[in-house]
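Thread: Modeling a multi-component assembly for a lab meeting

Hi all, long-time lurker, first post. My supervisor asked me to bring a structural picture of a complex we are working on to next week's group meeting, and I have zero experience with this. I have the sequence lines for every component (224 residues in total). Could someone generate the structure of the whole assembly? Inputs are pasted exactly as I received them:
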Amino acid sequence: NAGVTQTPKFQVLKTGQSMTLQCAQDMNHEYMSWYRQDPGMGLRLIHYSVGAGITDQGEVPNGYNVSRSTTEDFPLRLLSAAPSQTSVYFCASSYRAGGYEQYFGPGTRLTVT
Amino acid sequence: GENVEQHPSTLSVQEGDSAVIKCTYSDSASNYFPWYKQELGKGPQLIIDIRSNVGEKKDQRIAVTLNKTAKHFSLHITETQPEDSAVYFCAEQGSARQLTFGSGTQLTVLP
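Re: Modeling a multi-component assembly
Sure thing. I ran the full set together rather than chain by chain. Output:
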């Protein structure tokens, strides 16, 4: 099993550009989530999904969209990048929501200039 | 909303000594408390977790304790080794069933 994979590993965007961060898992997990990690602030939940076709907002959803058309994939879209979105983004998956180990991908380091 | 306070933010110990990281939470409905270890350039990885019906759990050199009355839980690492150097995050799952993470502790084990 590859686990949770994320692409790209690094990305530089200009303010106003859009892009999609890809996330895939091959463990048939129902629950998938996106976090951003900023210095001194831990991991903050952006969006999550409890199954194909179901998504919901986390703590910091503004400026991001998600969709879950398949169990395996959970892309994160930045609609119009802003410098405040400079961060490291992690995708995670778990068997189900609530009380199960979350498996994290390797992360995407995004810089918005 | 849910809030998790984690202390200290940095911790240096001599190899072989013990390390303790503490977290407090605010949601009385919280029922699941995992700890994650993040090595440089990698995603976090679960090292141990505890549920609200248990007061302590051990796994070799790692232990976690939970005090529900005081709403705090702690990670204990004994006989520390250089490979224990990493960032450690506590987290809690409350009534919303989503994880809320602490701000992290950079642990450095000095040889």
